[in-house]
Amino acid sequence: xxxxxxxxxxxxxxxxxxxxxxxxxxxxxxxxxxxxxxxxxxxxxxxxxxxxxxxxxxxxxxxxxxxxxxxxxxxxxxxxxxxxxxxxxxxxxxxxxxxxxxxxxxxxxxxxxxxxxxxxxxxxxxxxxxxxxxxxxxxxxxxxxxxxxxxxxxxxxxxxxxxxxxxxxxxxxxxxxxxxxxxxxxxxxxxxxxxxxxxxxxxxxxxxxxxxxxxxxxxxxxxxxxxxxxxxxxxxxxxxxxxxxxxxxxxxxxxxxxxxxxxxxxxxxxxxxxxxxxxxxxxxxxxxxxxxxxxxxxxxxxxxxxxxxxxxxxxxxxxxxxxxxxxxxxxxxxxxxxxxxxxxxxxxxxxxxxxxxxxxxxxxxxxxxxxxxxxxxxxxxxxxxxxxxxxxxxxxxxxxxxxxxxxxxxxxxxxxxxxxxxxxxxxxxxxxxxxxxxxxxxxxxxxxxxxxxxxxxxxxxxxxxxxxxxxxxxxxxxxxxxxxxxxxxxxxxxxxxxxxxxxxxxxxxxxxxxxxxxxxxxxxxxxxxxxxxxxxxxxxxxxxxxxxxxxxxxxxxxxxxxxxxxxxxx
Length: 570
Ligand code: SER
What we know:
Helices cover 41% and strands 22% of the residues. By secondary structure, it is of the alpha+beta class.
């Protein structure tokens, strides 16, 4: 059965069982505990915890989706027969609608309906805190399962690895020795400190990788032989090693999807993940002396194969290809030099590797792979450590201590090359705080910062919001910002520890890692604060310094995320 048919059949099956079909959410999650979306349940967290009502939002307590997912933890494994960074996860979910019996029987019925026979299943064996999942064991027994294995917490308990979230015992379905379906019974809630509490309403969260399902359904030896990868691999010359072919096809596919969700290559967060995927591919392209058109054809093939299901790929096609070439262009200036540097270098440790990354842009994976025994002392941890030190240094840049790269200011968010630009980005920076506050006043408190980037010419602000803004809303936002400018409001900074800062109601950008002492910038008198945010600065002293602010563009950045560009007119 083709992957397309599998997708359709899955959604149809669960729709026929009363599930609302919900579109995939963005790879950039609206969830502070994860960098990228790693599972279908993420967009539904608040329905498990009872913070939101599924009947009000979906018309049902049960939903189904095919979720774009990404696991950075598997990046080093890609190249073998079954690991991927990006994958599609088929899932059915229930928030107090049904529980173990239905979930297991639906799973079996669906696999039967597409002609797949279950090999064996596993259930949670129990440990000192949580009992054996006898109920699931019995349900499987009655359903005719012949091989039911009991496994411990490592295998049959699902929950967030870090941070908070729903969790519970799982039952897993194996076909031909491969785990295809993970059915999680969310009974508990894991707190940030790792302790478990009972959830008021138990829920069901299932996840089945489309790639693995396609592999068993299409009777292939590995995921790369399925129709999801064949057309991509067909474009790559057979002279490349199998491992390289797999890495390239995984990485370019993942890159196309990240770009379609508005991620751009950078040295931070999701942008940094994307940069590594692309650059590793470019190194393989370079050393195999491939024609530059080959990868572009692959990107186009990926978009073509997926665009009917993922409309963002279609709508952002030109932007995706454009960003792809830009990153290639940027890297091509230093790639060959970087490889030469790698060849000349002895003893590559974390410090040295980071220097090579910083100077030549070679990603960690490539440095490790190409330096052989010379980098025995190099670990990902050591490299990341250096990276962190560097980021702290560039944060200090916000106070003007940063000298490198010809910029006098580079906080990641703000960039200025001289005093003149510094004054402009400072004004735009305060304007951006006013913009966020105004957006929340007009559109509601669900609006949250998803990213921002400020140059001397403009501010670019991304925020969570589900739809296009109306002309009236844009006008209102603009008027509120300019009202604050006209009001000549004072901008004040106060230093405090992070907890007090968050408690004070100051907004913060959840993707940023804040130090334990932070600065809080507020605009306006304490009685009538217009805006209050955790921020490294710099800002103007009084809003009158800003001048007239205009919104020049409002557009989609990713699903659920809007992007505004604004500037100051003289
Ligand atoms: N959340 C579980 C997983 O990721 C099931 O969807 O495997």
